[in-house]
Amino acid sequence: MRHLIYLLIICLFYSCSHSVEGVLFNPNLNGKWTLTDVQAPGYGPSGVWSVASPSGRWFQFNADSTVSGTVFTGATRYSIIDSATLKIIIPSEAAGFKLYNYQLDSIKKALFFYLRPPNGGYCFEGCGTLKFKSQ
User: Fold this and answer.
1) Predicted TM-score (pTM) above 0.85
2) DSSP the chain
């Protein structure tokens, strides 16, 4: 009985150490995601959210690092830089890519992309945010 309690405590500790308030670290982004909302660039933390238009746009990250879908037009590949930064290779872009911070909310099954400047800096007034739902 005592071994079972120890095993339960270890499992509980392990599961809690990998998430904070429903946000997973090093999440698996593979799969199909539908764009639901867009936050326009602007001043302040809240910005202005609106429903994505046209509706139904989507993207899919594949296990072989390729990208498909209708959100990131011209995208060919992606790479996860670290636990919070993602690079989407888009040869038609001036820099050849778009850089995003990302956050996965596993409880709401939502994925947020926060656009960053190509030089790796941050936008003080906000660059815009995309919200996706898992398919």
Assistant:
1) no
2) -HHHHHHHHHHHHHHHTTEETTEESS----EEEEEEEEEE--SSSS-EEEE-SSTT-EEEE-TTSBEEESSSTT--EEEE-SSSEEEEE-TTSSSSEEEEEEEEETTTTEEEEEEE-TTS---SS---EEEEEE-
